[in-house]
Write a structure and sequence with these properties.
Arc Repressor Mutant, subunit A, mainly alpha, elongated
């Protein structure tokens, strides 16, 4: 379960980064991985949600309406993970 969760969070991080910079190559550079890794992660998210998250227009991409919805929730999820991390670290204090 933990490994699946971490892999899912990696996909969400890739999605958010791609939504911000709108470049698979730049996303790969920012996340220190290969462009095919980012492509695979986004394809897996699209399969999971059964939705097209980005329109691919040659080398240019843009978020779809479904992508915009996921971006809103993805940002909330990452905030919750960060909040949980802080709470866990300070729980004994």
């Amino acid at each position: 379960m933990g490994v699946i969760c971490l892999k899912w969070l990696d996909k969400i991080e890739a999605f958010i980064t791609l939504a911000e910079c709108l470049s698979f190559t730049e996303t790969a550079k920012r996340l220190y991985c290969s462009q095919p890794t980012i492509t695979t992660q986004i394809q897996q998210l699209e399969e999971q949600f059964q939705a097209t998250l980005f329109l691919r227009l040659g080398k240019k991409i843009e978020l779809t309406k479904q992508g915009e919805v996921l971006l809103e929730y993805a940002k909330k999820m990452t905030c919750l993970v960060e909040e949980a991390t802080v709470k866990i670290k300070t729980a004994d204090q």
